[in-house]
Design a protein that fits this description.
single chain; alpha+beta; 2 domains
Length: 179
């Protein structure tokens, strides 16, 4: 796939999650309409790692898949018109950092996990929200909702809401039933 992207001159690789909730055929599941596109600069050596720049894209039509492969060979789509260029740290001031850190603390306690609080405290909101969204243990629908969020504030709100729901479910499933 990487070789094909480099060979055609576009240097783009698109990744789209399967949408299992709307699939009739498990062998060829439906795809979500929004995914990520990575732009890979020219490689000088096959051993040199790629350093992608990632953008979101909207898939218009699945135009075919390689036989026997778990990947789409060709999709018709385009980069989100408003998100061709991401502006670093745009919208950070709108993120409710206090709520994000509170739910992170609750999640860590509930799962007996530790974190480098010095790193968390020094991270800008954009890096913190995006890293937590990426590392979150949630399924495809939740991750897709975060990917499709129109801005950083909304992505943080989705992350907080999903985490709160997960924590509530854990609390109620571990409590003894009513008698």
């Amino acid at each position: 796939m990487v070789d094909d992207a480099l060979r055609d001159g576009h240097r783009l690789i698109g990744m789209i999650q399967p949408d299992l909730s709307h699939s009739r055929d498990e062998a060829r599941p439906a795809l979500f309409r929004v995914g990520c596109v990575e732009h890979h600069p020219a490689r000088r050596s096959r051993r040199r790692p790629l350093h992608p720049r990632t953008h979101r894209h909207r898939t218009l039509q699945d135009r075919g898949r390689d036989a026997g492969a778990d990947c789409v060979s060709s999709v018709q789509g385009g980069l989100f018109p408003l998100h061709r260029r991401f502006h670093a740290r745009k919208g950070e001031e709108a993120v409710d950092r206090e709520a994000l850190l509170e739910v992170l603390t609750d999640f860590l306690k509930a799962n007996n996990l530790k974190v480098d609080w010095e790193g968390v405290e020094s991270a800008p909101n954009e890096a913190l929200v995006n890293a937590l969204a990426m590392m979150s243990p949630y399924g495809s629908p939740e991750k897709q909702a975060m990917l499709e969020a129109p801005d950083l504030k909304t992505r943080a709100e989705i992350l907080i809401a999903v985490t709160e729901m997960d924590l509530a479910k854990k609390r109620t499933s571990s409590e003894p039933g009513l008698q």
